[in-house]
## 1
Amino acid sequence: MSYRPLVFVSGLTLGDYLLWNWSLNGNHEVVALVAGLTLPPLALATLWLLARAVARLLARGAGRQGARRSPAHRPARPQERRAPAPGRPAAEQPAARAAVTESSSRKLAA
């Protein structure tokens, strides 16, 4: 994400405000009128870009916190050996399937 538009529009707004203030104090009516008419849209654009930048930062921070809490990023815990559930054959249990696969691969490797 680029902050260039925010910096650019903020600089224009500050410059316009300074020009408007200087022209009011120096009795430059035409310059004060032009600077005064362009100041509100520039101020609104600056506030809009600032709000977008803050929203993106908050969204990025929330995304990072969500990624920290997701189960995919947690370290793997060792699986506990459990007794087969009643009514299901032992071959359907995950631990039993792993043991069957492991033993059959040993036979192929030997």
## 2
Amino acid sequence: MDNMAPMLAAYKTVNTYIEEEVERRSKLTAKRPYRSESINELAEALALSQGEFPPIPYNRTNASWNDDYSDLDIVMKYIRPLLSKNKLALNQWTELTDDGGTILHTELLHASGQWKESRTKVVPVRNDIKTFDSAMADAKRQQALSLLGITLQGDPKDDGGELAMEEAYKEVALPLEKRLVRSEESYECITEEQVRELQIELDGHPDLAEQLLDKYSLRSIGDMPKSKYKYALQQVRKFLMYRKGDTDTIR
């Protein structure tokens, strides 16, 4: 009987953990819609607006890259009258996530009540207000352009993916022994379902995700070899149990 109390306490801890995980995963897997059930009137209004969008001039220069660009203010000055004319409105707002991150929502609304939206996580390179404001302003601009289907002639960022591939070009130039490889044991990567499972487990724990990438020399979770998946998943779950304070159950 003396041993029953610790056992019951352990069972209670495990049960609480399972309930919390079920609730957390239910929230993660529940898909929030990106558009209203019908968008026929919105689509017609947007098509009419796009047919009249004028060329938008560049009005700013990026000090770091010396690139000309059109900021969100000049873009909206040129297109806002056309949106209003066709009963459209653009609305942007932010959402704070459980892990302290920020999601930017950009909604295109029609007078009929129909809508569609775009979302992106704003991740500044430094944790200070000026850097955050800069990242947020650029995200607002990029989402508005994308959602409204606006293109800018001669946009310096439309470089055919050259900047995005810069690191890959550098790696190709390295000696073979210094190049980053997925795994010496297996080049067969985990499935999309396994990627999602790991992402669910790691949600809210960016430090664990970073450790996992470092341990296996991966660029992304999707590059993990199948031979490492089961052990990696077990280790992640152990770390999470420790963080929950349930050290007895996982010994």
## 3
Amino acid sequence: MTFCKGELCELRPLDPEDEMQVGTFTDYVNRGLTTQHLFTGSIPMRTKDYQQKWAAELKAGEILFGIWVDDRFIGTCGLHTHRDIYKSWEFRILIFDPEFIGKGIGAEATRLTVDYAFSRLNAHRVWLGVNEENKGAVKCYEKVGFKHEGTLRDEIFVFGHYVNALRMGILENEWREMYAR
């Protein structure tokens, strides 16, 4: 079931009971082909572990999408860590299929998700954290309209060394100015 459709991809709700979705995600993440910049690292997990994780996130009110190109499940994105009093959401994305990295799909999925946050959830602010060494992701977020808000020094331990994390965010009025309808 399509939830949001762009020119390059569509977003569909993630379903922890959908064995194809969870199995594909587990397989790709455990291979580690595109997870070198994740904050949480990449630890081997079972399909059952991800089913439970997704179910718990959904129960907590988080918004989870699968990113689809044609009929191929290639990544996930969503809105997490909702702070109702501030009308703030954290954006996260992972394109786990390396064939689809660098083709504009991440930017489109980001735009669709952020637009949903502002247009449907009445968000005031959407923020994210990104590994400073992930230059492609930083460029993508800047292109979509996120602004640098700060640097957390040595925030993430990746492959034997610490790296900085960048905090980036976009406010609803900035979004409206960029994407005026």
## 4
Amino acid sequence: MNKKMIFISIAVIGLFLLSAFSAYAAPMHPGQDTKPSQDKTPGAQATANAILHASQGKGQGGKKANFKGVIFSASATDLTITLADGTSASFALTPDTRISIPTLGKSATFAELLHGLQVHVRAQKDDGGLYTALSVSVTPGKPIKVHRVGIVTDYQLGVSITIQAKDGNPYTFTLTPDTKILPADRTDQLIVGARVTIISPRNVATGQSIVAGIVVHPTTGTSEEPETVESPEPEESPAP
């Protein structure tokens, strides 16, 4: 090989090496991304969107809904209410379920969720279609005044009184310092065996019957017992 061919070969190799070095060492333009490009295919993009939505929805729980109705049954773990259209709705109760009763404040528990009370339930639906009650609020209502006649079977001064009513059933009522005995001159006659009329507004928010007054009937006489009266409106105390 003559010297001319050798020189040309060396020159060509030198130019090739110089071009390769320049391309490798070229400075990066400002703002150029150094990360490898992401796959822009439809399948890859759909997967990325699914992962994003799953991460955004994590911890949010299922759909929430509100229900209004009357308690049909309740326990420490379950609540069933009857809705306005006659159908029923059931909910799971948990230690985190907030129970609100106006007269009891934060001390209310599932034990105060009595049959017949009107409630508002805020619940959350799980993936299986079951509802868990987040909160149960008893709807306040007007007290119902009850007059009940019977024979005293148990009397605890300032605590409670139990009577055997005309329907044959026993009824127990809570006494308070504000409970009045009428007439006042028969207070000493309020004993076991006495015939009385209990005047007791029942609190519809708690179901509790607290005695407002006890009418003690005379021990003699042949007058008939007045019928038991239940009315939502206040009434005059029955005559002794």
